[in-house]
Amino acid sequence: MPLEEKKRAARNKPTPYNRQPQKANTPRTSATSALPSRKQHLTLYDKLTILDYANKHPSLPQDRICKYFATRQEGALIFTQSTLSRILRQQEELKHRVESNPTALSAKKARIVTRPDVERALYLWFKHFNEEKGEVATGAMLEAKRLEFEKLLDVPEEERLTGRG
Questions:
Q1: Maximum CA pair distance of the chain?
Q2: Which positions ≥6 away from 82 have C-beta within 8 Å?
Q3: 21, 47, 96 from 85: Cα distances, Å
Q4: Are 160 and 139 in contact (CB under 8 A)?
């Protein structure tokens, strides 16, 4: 018995995809843009360099100081006029941070130490562990030692650190 031919309903043709033009096959690179990003976190050393320059040129407007640092040969420091104004306001505080902790020059944020005695004991243990034993201390080890030093130095419960920091 012959098969009956069925008529199919006509289908609309699909519309073409909105394709983006293809780029040339170039390999990826890890090079960064020559143009620095708008926001740059300044280290304490950078801020002191800016303060030194601003104090040596007191008649120079703040926007010109910003432009100078954005184009200097030693390396550009990108910051806004409002950041410069804040740095100038905090001048005494920044100098005090250097006097209290000379190793903080490469830090971008101020470290807050609530218990200097525990901090000192932890630092000495870490130095001994890393340099003399030649081993690497992990975050969990530092946390455990901090708890141990807090107990040894009779730090009250309410002053003990509870986080992982």
A1: 106
A2: none
A3: 47, 11, 18
A4: no
Look at residue 16 and tell me whether its pLDDT is greater than 60: yes
Encode pLDDT of 83-106 as tens digits: 999 999 999 988 888 887 767 777
> Could you give the angle at which helices 44-56 and 91-100 cross, rounded to 10 degrees?
130
DSSP annotation of 129 reads I
Contacts of residue 41, defined as CB under 8 A and 6 or more positions apart, other chains included, come to 108
CA distance 43 to 110: 10
Split at pLDDT 50, 70, 90, the class of 33 is very low
Instruction: Kindly report, residue by residue over 36-66, the tens digit of the pLDDT.
Output: 555 678 888 889 999 999 999 999 999 999 9
Say which residue the tokens 């243990």 belong to: 125
Rg, Å, the chain Cα set: 30
Nearest to 38 by CA among 68, 85, 80: 80
Neighbour count for residue 67 (Cβ, 10 Å): 12
Q: Is pLDDT at 8 greater than 80 in this prediction?
A: no
Q: Which amino acid is at 120?
A: R
CA angle 19, 24, 26 (to 5 degrees): 130
Number of H helices, E strands in the chain: 6, 0
